[in-house]
């Protein structure tokens, strides 16, 4: 049976929950015939990435999807690219606040997602779940994990595929935010992740029809 590793972060920035992990917790244990392994990881530079790397070594998954919170975004956003750069606006959960650092000193400047992120985005929208492709995973721990995970896959597990996805604030978090702050219910996020992962299992690459523009 194929295996999907899905990771979500612990709460950070003073929040009591992280919607990424809350949505992952309620995912089914099997998606399109693939076993789903769920893992919570720390919001700490380097450490979160190491936890993911160790899990990959132990589980040997076919697909890896790491998920994080992007408070302020209105939609679920699969990330197109992770960059080899750390620059923290706020400290991580261990108080680290790196600036202008490379993640992997001799690594490439960027890695592109190897899951069909365009098709995943389109499928979520077609299912009534607001989604948009993002071209920046930021420079905080989310990007740190995305880049590091893709580096591990590229250098050690070339047959495995991976990507990162951001989710908005959960509805209950928005009660403490300014009036125009976007949010989604946890159950909507979970459904979005399930739809996106179903596409990732079925399709290895984004293929676009030149005649219709449809993404498969």
Automatic annotation (TrEMBL):
Alphabetically ordered keywords of this record: Cytoplasm, Hydrolase, Protease, Thiol protease
Localization, UniProt: Cytoplasm
Substrates-to-products reaction catalysed: Release of an N-terminal pyroglutamyl group from a polypeptide, the second amino acid generally not being Pro
Annotated GO MF terms: pyroglutamyl-peptidase activity
Top-level EC class: hydrolase
Active-site residues per Swiss-Prot or TrEMBL entry: 79, 142, 166
Biological-process GO terms, alphabetical: proteolysis
Major localisation: cytoplasm
Its EC number(s): 3.4.19.3
One Gene Ontology CC term in the entry: cytosol
Quaternary structure annotation from Swiss-Prot or TrEMBL: Homotetramer.
Family designation: Belongs to the peptidase C15 family.
Function: Removes 5-oxoproline from various penultimate amino acid residues except L-proline.
Name recorded for this polypeptide: Pyrrolidone-carboxylate peptidase
Organism: Lancefieldella parvula (strain ATCC 33793 / DSM 20469 / CCUG 32760 / JCM 10300 / KCTC 3663 / VPI 0546 / 1246)
């Amino acid at each position: 049976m194929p295996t999907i590793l899905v990771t979500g972060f612990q709460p950070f920035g003073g929040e009591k929950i992280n919607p990424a992990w809350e949505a992952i917790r309620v995912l089914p244990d099997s998606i399109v015939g693939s076993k789903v392994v769920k893992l919570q990881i720390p919001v700490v530079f380097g450490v979160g990435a190491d936890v993911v790397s160790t899990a990959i070594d132990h589980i040997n998954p076919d697909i890896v999807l790491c998920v994080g919170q992007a408070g302020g975004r209105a939609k679920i956003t699969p990330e197109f690219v992770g960059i080899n750069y750390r620059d923290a606006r706020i400290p991580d959960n261990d108080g680290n606040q790196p600036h202008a650092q490379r993640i992997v000193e001799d690594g490439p400047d960027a890695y592109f997602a190897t899951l069909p992120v365009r098709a995943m985005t389109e499928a979520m929208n077609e299912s009534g779940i607001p989604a948009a492709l993002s071209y920046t995973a930021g420079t905080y721990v989310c990007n740190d994990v995305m880049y590091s995970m893709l580096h591990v896959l590229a250098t050690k597990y070339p047959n495995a595929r991976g990507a990162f996805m951001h989710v908005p604030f959960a509805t209950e978090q928005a009660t403490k935010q300014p009036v125009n702050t976007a949010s989604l219910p946890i159950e909507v996020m979970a459904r979005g992740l399930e739809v996106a992962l179903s596409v990732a299992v079925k399709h290895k690459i984004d293929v676009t029809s030149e005649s219709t523009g449809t993404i498969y």
